[in-house]
Amino acid sequence: MSRSADEVNKLTESTYKTVMDQFNPGLRNLVNLGKNYEKSVAAMILAGKLYFDAMSKIGENAAVSPVSRELGVVLTDISEVHRKVHLELEENFKRFHREIISELERKTDMDVKYMTATFKRYQIEHKMKQDFLERSQSDLKKLRRKSQGKNANKYETKESECLETLTSRQMDMQLFIADGCKEALLEEKRRFCFLVDKHCMFSYQYASYHEKARDMLTAKLNSWQDRCKDASDMPDSILSMIDGLRTPVTITPLPSPSPSRHSMNMSAPPAPPLKAQTSPLANMFTQENNTATVTSATKSSIGHVSSEDNNLARSVSVATGLNNIVKRMRVRTIFPHTAGSNNTLLSFEEGDVIALLIPDERDGWMYGELEKNGKRGWFPSSYCRALSEPLVNNNSVSAAPYRSRSVVNLHHQDTETDEATMVLPPADYSDVPQRNAIKNNASTVATNSNHKHSPTPSAASSSSSSDPHTAVQPNGTSKSQPAYLAGGNPFATVRLRPTVTNDRSAPAI
């Protein structure tokens, strides 16, 4: 394709302008984007490193599991392989930065100056040659005009010389334009070749990286997949352990260290040698009494009245209400009790619940377990009542109101408060004949007790369970050691005033 010199010159100038106005700015933009690409890849490598480090820690935690130990090793291997892949990627992008981004940045800065100077030099030379050519053409025109006159032969030699000069300059101009165009196109191509060559090298390195990563990832991929193929598969050692647990084991029964509270054949420490102290209000919390109990209490009271000069006997047999306790098997304490130095006795507070381990009473003592702390020991049976019994029985057989007029006299008068807070004892009888007999005896005892004191709770309890010939002082106390000094009844020293009561508990004479 033949083109004129002017068209070729325009192509040359457009080539230089393309390189200067489009290619070099494009390279600068490419350098900036390449830097951003590097930052993104570096952030991805860092995130991947953190991710696979966390996965490696999970694998290390699974190393202690008897069934997942191998899977933990697989997780560790996978994280290690990916870490190596990321290291290769990091090295690849270091070369990318070193061989492409840095080179492009440096070449772009240099090429801007070079292309500007080259294009300017081409323009200057082209203008100078163009001026020479135009001058030669102007000189030739002048000579041809002169040769048309009278002396034509005179200008032939000069005209031929001017024509040769014009032809020479025109040829030189064409050669300059051709060389300039060629140089401009080559400069453009060199720059594109440089860019393509650098990225071909990067692509080759990237492909090499992927091949190496592929080899590293596929080297153990089959073994990894085999490890997680069956999630229900377990090691033989674990299966044998589980099968061993499924095998029934014959165990020889051993005696329980803490036998049941309802056991009737359990062994217990021997009962204390002394009989238990009777609580001062033993009969106040008995809700249901049978006729035999009342009869025995009446006979016991008759003996005490004759031996103690018709003193009012307020206590009945210690066994009163005990049948209810045996039936219910659990009792609630109504008075506190301290064992002292005797480790076979049971200490408790008022309101504690005791489970009877031996339901049979032994000389006023019962054996049980304190539910709040599990301690066991002997305790007075009169210090407790059946757990289901209410403290006060307002539904007694008799409709007449019962109110005790007895007041504690400890050298001071506090009668109104004590009378107001005194708990009313329930009736301990159930038939009319016995009720009338006890009422008659109560009136007799009330008559004889105007100048006598009632026996203390300790004395009454002792008289109902000990030798009937025990000496009793006029004030109603026994000569033996007071019970409260031995950890017994705290009301042993209480003195009662003569009183008249309608509870009909006095013995029939």
TrEMBL record:
It is found in: Cytoplasm, Cytoskeleton. SMART domains: SH3. GO terms for molecular function: actin binding. GO terms for biological process: actin crosslink formation; actin filament bundle assembly; plasma membrane organization; positive regulation of actin filament polymerization. Residues 472-481, 499-509 have a biased composition (Polar residues). Signal peptide: none annotated. PANTHER family: BRAIN-SPECIFIC ANGIOGENESIS INHIBITOR 1-ASSOCIATED PROTEIN 2 (PTHR14206), BRAIN-SPECIFIC ANGIOGENESIS INHIBITOR 1-ASSOCIATED PROTEIN 2-LIKE PROTEIN 1 (PTHR14206:SF4). This is BAR/IMD domain-containing adapter protein 2-like 1.
